[in-house]
Design goal:
It is a single chain. This protein has a five-stranded mixed sheet with strand order 3-2-1-4-5, with helices on both faces. With 255 residues, the chain is an alpha/beta fold. It folds into two domains: 2-62, Orthogonal Bundle (DNA polymerase, domain 1), CATH 1.10.150; 85-243, Ribonuclease H-like superfamily/Ribonuclease H (Nucleotidyltransferase, domain 5). The chain has helices at residues 15-23, 29-34, 43-61, 66-71, 81-84, 127-134, 149-156, 169-174, 182-188, 202-215, 218-233, 235-251, and strands at residues 88-95, 105-111, 116-120, 139-142, 166-168. Strand 4, helix 7 and strand 5 form a beta-alpha-beta unit. The chain starts with 14 loop residues before the first helix and ends with a helix. The protein has twelve helices and five strands.
Length: 255
């Protein structure tokens, strides 16, 4: 539960001061609140920080992730994963190209760790239905979504809100030495793809959509949706691995 061991969302506390707290044995919110005095923190300042932690605890118990959205540095949103994993959604989109200005979204895949839902262009991909689905989740997880999926979705569906914590596994993975695209990271973690989608790429996804759009090739559409499903479902074990490894890297010296 890394977020309950974190202090960098507090006013005036950065990674250096957070580490100093850990070095003093203040390893959790509970430790902080139970300590009457902490060296280097004046009594009045301690009282203010106590209230901030109590407010954080209240919001965390309510799964009110919006509290942490602006307070927690974006590159540290991964710290929320343990508390929110059962309430998070993984998102992946397929498109007709790389430009949100010129190209279309063909499939939006949403996975909550238990159920996969596909929203398909000209079938069930509608702004309101997608909005209702995404509003259920206080945390979103993507791979390169901050640079691709989310800007694309914002452009095509302006009423969608992404003012909530977002873990982009593309960038968090790099912090533990996992680089490259999604398929390369999957291979590194032993996640294998099988059948028609093995070896497929985003360019193949564009080709499959064209076969469906022009020739109404049902098999092509089914393969495209299956490709998207595997893309988004594989984000879950990657997120688990990245969270555990980052937690070790950040906090292991103090356990």
């Amino acid at each position: 539960m890394m977020i309950r061991q974190s202090f960098i969302f507090l006013d005036g506390i950065g990674t250096v001061r957070e580490r100093r707290l850990w070095e003093k044995g203040i390893l959790s919110w509970k430790n902080f609140l139970e300590s009457k005095k902490i060296k280097g923190i004046p009594e009045k300042r301690k009282s203010i920080l106590d209230r901030e932690i109590e407010e954080a605890d209240f919001n965390l118990n309510r799964l009110a992730s919006s509290f942490f959205f602006m307070r927690l540095p974006r590159r540290e949103h991964w710290r929320l994963f343990s508390e929110f994993r059962e309430h998070a959604c993984f998102i992946d989109i397929e498109t007709t190209g790389l430009s949100a200005e010129r190209n279309d979204i063909t499939v939006v895949g949403v996975y909550n760790g238990r159920e996969y839902k596909s929203f398909i262009k000209d079938i069930n991909l509608e702004e309101e239905s997608l909005k209702r689905e995404l509003e259920k989740y206080p945390l979103i997880i993507t791979f390169y979504g901050s640079a691709f999926d989310i800007p694309f979705l914002r452009k095509k569906f302006p009423t969608l809100s992404f003012e909530k914590p977002h873990i982009d596994l593309c960038f968090t993975s790099r912090r533990i030495g996992l680089s490259g695209g999604l398929k390369r990271i999957e291979e590194g973690l032993g996640l294998e793809r099988e059948g028609d989608i093995k070896g497929m790429s985003g360019f193949d996804a564009v080709r499959l959509w064209k076969k469906w759009e022009v020739y109404r090739d049902r098999r092509a559409l089914e393969t495209l949706v299956e490709y998207n499903r595997i893309d988004v479902e594989n984000l879950s074990p990657i997120a688990e691995h990245v969270y555990e490894e980052l937690k070790k890297a950040v906090f292991a010296d103090f356990v």
